[in-house]
Amino acid sequence: MRAWLFLAPGLLCADLLSPAATPTYSENQAPAASEPERYSMTPTEGGFLRLDRQTGSVSLCTVEKGRALCRAGADEKAALETEISRLSRENAELRSALSGVPAGRPRASPGLPSEEEFERTLSMTERFLRRLLKVFREEMPADQAPR
């Protein structure tokens, strides 16, 4: 057991310095969970450290009641809190923009045209079909003309 305690810091440093541990994760790409050897586990006192070789994130994991529980490091928590505050600001801005809609005008459902747009489109479609039918009638041979 003591040998593990002395080897753990060395193994962690070796894992962090290896080329495979270089963070190659792009924020625009979702990490693939099925990649072999993505995580490196290093035993520590009271649990183990889990290194994600793609993102470079380190989590402290403990085993409680037969289940491994991994807690995010301080850097990950700070990044999550920053993202939560950004989304909260964006949500507040969107709510204030929506509240600026005039009360007399009903809100249109997302993706649906307004009544004016619908009527204009229907009118153009009707004109198109009338002209198309007129062309068909003019081009139809006399012996097939409707009686």
Please indicate the percent range of residues in DSSP E strands (runs of 2 or more): 15-25%
Structural class call reads alpha+beta
Rg result: 32 Å
SSE pattern, N- to C-terminal: HEEEEHH
Number of helices: 3
Largest sheet: 4 strands, antiparallel
Name the poorly predicted regions.
1-29
Q: How many beta-strand elements?
A: 4
Backbone shape: elongated
Mean pLDDT figure: 74
Task: Tell me the helix content.
Answer: 40-55%
Distance N terminus to C terminus? Answer: 101 Å
Widest sheet, order of strands: 1-2-3-4
What does this structure look like?
- Strands 1-2-3-4 form a 4-stranded antiparallel sheet.
- With 147 residues, the protein is of the alpha+beta class.
- The chain has a domain of 62 residues.
- The protein is elongated, with a radius of gyration of 32 Å.
- It is built from 3 helices and 4 strands; from the N terminus they run αββββαα.
Key phrases:
147 residues; alpha+beta
Give a quick precis of the structure.
With 147 residues, this protein is of the alpha+beta class. The protein has a domain of 62 residues. 46% of the residues lie in helices and 17% in strands.
